[in-house]
Amino acid sequence: MCSALADPRVPDRDLATHARIRDAAIRVFGERGFAAGVRTIAAAAHVSPGLVNHHFGSKDGLRAACDAQIRELITTVKREALDSPGPAGMLAALAEVEDYAPIAAYVVRSFQSGGEFARALFEQMVADADRLLAEGVAAGRFTPSRDPAARARYLTQASVGSMLIGMQMNTKPDAPPDFRRAIRDLATATTLPALELYTEGLFTDRSVLDAFLDSQE
To answer: Distance between CA 213 and CA 217 in Å, rounded?
Structure first.
C-alpha cells in the first residue's frame, strides 16, 4: 500500500514534484503532527518552500491534498483485501505491515486532532467495512448479522480504538515516534487474539445473546 508514498530520495524524473511534496507531507504530518510547517515539509521533499506554495497554494491546500490521498489509499487497501480473500492475502499483509506505517501515523494524528476529516474518514471506514462484510457473507466466509450496519460500525470502532491505543502506548514521549516498530508490535500483539475471537467466539453458549434478544422484544 505505502509504495504510493515515495521515498524523497527518488529522483524527480521518477515521481512528479507535486506527488513527491504531498507524500513527504504525509510522512512529516504523521511523524510530527499537523503543527509541522511548510519549511519542514519542503526540507523533507528536498524542494523550496516557495515550490510547496506554488503547487498547493498554502499549508491548508497541502493538507487537503494529503487527506484526499489518504482516503484513496485506504480505499485501495480495502479493495485489495476484497480481491485477495483468504489466509494467503492476510499473511502477505502481515509480512509487510511496516509498509503501512506512514499512513497509519497520519490516520492516528487525524483522529487525535479530530475535525471534519477525522469524521469523514471514520464514516468511510465504516462504509468499507460494511461492504467487505456483506461480500464476505455472500461468499460464505462470514456469518450473517442481525444488524450488518451496526456490526460494521462496531468493528471499525474497535479497530480504530485498538490502533490509537496501540500506537500511543508504543511510542516514547522523549523520543521521535517509531511508527514502523509501533505498527509491527501492534500487529504482533493483536493478530492472534483477534483471529481467535473472530473465528472461535468467546461465549460457550447462547444464553447471554438470547437474554438480550428477549429483553429487546
So the answer is: 6
